[in-house]
Amino acid sequence: MSMKDKLLFFLKRFALLFIIPSILLNLFLSYKFYSQKKANLVKVIGIIDGDTVVLENKTRLRLRHIDAPELEFCGGQEAKNLLASLVENKSISIEEQIPDQTGRAMALIYVDNLFINQKMLESGWVRYHSDQTSKTALLKKTADNAKTNKLGIFSQLCLQMQNPDNPNCIIKGNLENKRTSGRKLYYLLSCAQYKFVQIEKDLGEQWFCTEKEASAAGYIKAATCK
Predict the structure, then answer these.
(1) Which of 154, 186, 206 is the last residue of a domain?
(2) Minimal CA–CA distance to 128: which of 142, 110, 149, 114?
(3) CA distance 67 to 127
(4) Which of 124, 154, 184 is the last residue in one of the domains?
(5) 57 CA to centre of own chain
(6) Are the C-beta atoms of 199 and 207 separated by less than 8 Å?
(7) Do 127 and 48 share a structural domain?
(8) Per the residue annotation, which of 70, 88, 95, 96 is the catalytic one?
(9) Residues forming beta bridges with residue 99, ordered by sequence position
(10) What pLDDT does residue 226 have?
(11) pLDDT class for 104, splitting at 50, 70, 90?
């Protein structure tokens, strides 16, 4: 046998002894990984709003880092429709699940490799909610980009300094504290802060034509008004 033939023989033996078993092992591990991942999937059977889904076991799951508008507020239906298009009747994988302060489950969710929490924030139809996960920095940056680019609820559709629908109704109904159920205040042109007050309709803030309308809706005149 020539030296060349011996070398070829040795290489074939090496392939049989080492390369092929290695390939088979990798195939087995890949199969095991994807089988396990598939086993951890759960189907979404319903959408409550833009930040909460219903799973096939009838439990509700909220998306971490996200606050969607109430359905009756500006952007509420758009957020719900977007979430439905991404996950409804699809299987999702759930990561970093914890209970919120009321005991409801919340998590990061994926459809295959699509990160749903990020897609929602990217659209601008939901607000960023401060939370501590492995994706905090990514999601905060995504939300900031949507706000900077005036997408979704940060567009003039929901965030307004003037009333585009009825320029004659210029009384601003504003929440004193955006995150709590604090006082509802209304501002007239004579109020010192009037020109700085924004109407964030996704939070339920609104325009009024008269003080009587504002009072009927539970708003009181701001202290800075003359």
Answers:
(1) 154
(2) 142
(3) 5
(4) 154
(5) 22
(6) yes
(7) yes
(8) 70
(9) 105
(10) 76
(11) confident
Answer yes or no: 72 catalytic. no
- Distances in Å between the alpha carbon of 17 and those of 23, 24, 70? 11, 12, 63
Q: Is 179 a catalytic residue?
A: no
pTM of the model: 0.79
pLDDT tens, residue by residue, 152-198: 999 999 999 999 999 999 999 999 876 665 789 999 999 999 999 99
Helix/strand/coil for 165: coil
Q: Which of 13, 56, 60, 104 is catalytic?
A: 104
Distance CA 91, CA 132 (A): 25
Catalytic residue among 62, 64, 78, 200: 62
Q: Answer whether 120's CB lies under 8 Å from 63's CB.
A: yes
Coil, strand or helix: which one is 217? coil
Q: How far is CA 220 from CA 159, 172, 188, 207, 215, in A?
A: 21, 11, 11, 13, 6
Angle among Cα 172, 173, 175 to the nearest 5 degrees reads 130
- At residue 169, the pLDDT reads 97
31 assigned to some structural domain: no
Bridge partners of 63? Answer: 107
Does residue 20 lie in a domain region? no
| C-alpha angle 123-110-104 in degrees, rounded to nearest 5 | 90
64 is catalytic: no
Give the structural domain span for 202. Answer: 159-221
Residue 146 burial (10 A CB sphere; 0-12, 13-18, 19+): buried
- Structure tokens of 223? 């202290």
Question: Residue 167 in 3-state DSSP?
Answer: coil
